[in-house]
Structures are given as C-alpha cells and as structure tokens.
Specification:
- The protein has a domain of 37 residues.
- The chain is built from 3 helices and no strands.
- It is mostly helical.
- The N and C termini lie far apart (73 Å).
- About 5% of the residues have low confidence.
- The chain is elongated, with a radius of gyration of 28 Å.
Length: 92
Amino acid sequence: MVALLLAILVTQWLSMVQRDRQWPVLQSVADQVRALDERVSGIDAKLASGAIAALQASQSSGAMQGVASAAAPARSENWARAGVPIQWQPEP
C-alpha cells in the first residue's frame, strides 16, 4: 500500500515538473498570438480607413498609362541566381 502511494506521489510530482517546463513555451505562444492580433487589428484599421484602396488605385492608374505595362507588369529578377535563365509563365 505504501509503495502504491509513493508511486502515485512520484507520478504527480513528475507531472507538475513537466507542466512547469511547458509554461514558458505556452507564454511565448500567447505573446506571439497577441502580437499577431495587434498586427491584424492594424491592418483592419487601415482597410477601414481606405488607405489600402487609395494605394491600389494609385498603382493601377500608373499601370494603365502604357499598353505594354498593362499587359505585362514589371517583374523583379533580383531574387534569381546570376546566369540562370528565368522563364515567366502567363498569369491565369
């Protein structure tokens, strides 16, 4: 009976130790979720104020100035390795 009681106590103690080790990880995840929530709230506020729509409108009016720029927008090739040809696919 004493051995069973000791086994239960040791198991409970190990469970508490494991939860204590998980606590910092849980707190960091909660902090990251809070930060993401703040960023999403900021984006929502910008969308509600119309700042993004105004930016897109100015970009689309600039793109419509030339037929070539409307048909094929400028694509950046600064991400590619030097000497490797880039094959662009048509947009759907």
